[in-house]
Amino acid sequence: MRPEAALPPAEPKLISSSNFGSKMKYSVLYVILIVVAGLQLLPLVWLFFFSLKNNQEVFNLPPLALPTHFRWENYQKVWEAGNISVYFFNSVWITVVATSFTIMLGGLATFAITRMKWKGSSLALGLFMVAMMIPVHSTLIPLFSMFNRIGLKDNPLELILTYVAFNMPITIMIMLGFYYALPREVEEAAVMDGCSINRLFFQIILPMTSSVIATTAIINMIYNWNEFIFVNTFISSDSLKTLTVGVQNFIGQYTTDWGSIGATLMISILPILIMFLFLSNRIMEGITAGSVKG
Predict the structure, then answer these.
(1) Which residue windows are transmembrane per the record (predicted)?
(2) Would you give the distance in Å from CA 172 to the centre of its chain?
(3) How far apart are CA 285 and CA 294, in angstroms?
(4) Residue 256, SS3?
């Protein structure tokens, strides 16, 4: 009998070289990602150092140089003397209220368009999509005149109504794919058990769409928090202004307090950054789940 031929010794070497090549690819990828992450964080580091400097250090030191003295009093100055605490509170409650109304109305509209049968559903969806093409700046004068006529001059309600109207189309567009992918068997079983339309939406559909709600919430919050044009146009009372407009208090005719401006910008960035870190996983779930219609 002929003995069986031994396995060639080259095969394990091929496997090990393949594993080595795979590890090298991942190592290079991780290095690239770390470099990109560092470049993304660089503006935040620069702004943090900027907020702890005075005007002389801002212009005389390199951008990423440490200040000679960490001036934490810049934050105390803008919070107390600069009225930033009032602007911060205004930004928070206006953003929360506008985002909540946008998500609720957007969810109801998307539910009606995707899960209910009525003649005007396609027309309603088309109108919302057409609204996305309207330039924001072209509506400033008509909206200002309309709010003056109805008695809402210099009123935060102007901002809330405007934010809800302009954020509704993008909110509905993001929710559409997710709502289309929801199984109808769940709704049919709920209806068979005597569930009303209101209970169906608030107790079944809304909890099932928590990931896409997180996605739309962070997008709406970023827009509402950073919005400048409408606040600067509609609001004239200092007690009603938000952070984006309040930063102008430190820009004078002859001098500008750059350290205070940096501290104000740092305060305005932190809430959105923290919110994004907490909701980042939910955002990715909402984007991936809503991208496939099943």
Answers:
(1) 28-49, 92-113, 125-147, 159-180, 200-223, 258-279
(2) 15
(3) 15
(4) strand
pTM, rounded to two decimals? 0.80
Q: What is the mean pLDDT of the chain?
A: 83
Contacts of 139 (CB under 8 A, 6+ apart): none
With cut-offs at 50, 70 and 90, classify the pLDDT of residue 293.
very low
Which ranges in the chain belong to alpha helices (H)?
10-51, 55-60, 73-76, 84-115, 121-131, 140-149, 156-181, 184-192, 197-199, 206-208, 210-226, 229-234, 243-246, 258-290
Whole-Å CA distances, 256 to 129, 139, 252? 43, 32, 5
What residues contact residue 157 under an 8 Å CB cut-off, 6+ apart? Answer: none
Kindly tell me if the per-residue pLDDT of 103 is higher than 70.
yes
Where is average pLDDT lowest: 86-100, 147-161, 179-193?
179-193
Structure tokens at 242: 């938000």
In a 13 Å sphere around the CA of 22, the CA atoms on its Cβ side amount to 6
Task: Provide the token pair at 104.
Answer: 């609720």
Residue-level pLDDT at 54: 87
Give CA separation, 100 vs 168, 171, 206, 221, 255, in Å: 11, 12, 13, 10, 40
Residue 253 has pLDDT above 80, yes or no: no
Question: Band of the pLDDT at 99, cuts 50, 70, 90?
Answer: very high
User: Whole-angstrom distance between the N-terminal and C-terminal Cα of the chain?
Assistant: 60
Between CA 276 and CA 148 the distance in angstroms is 36
Beta bridge partners of 251: 256
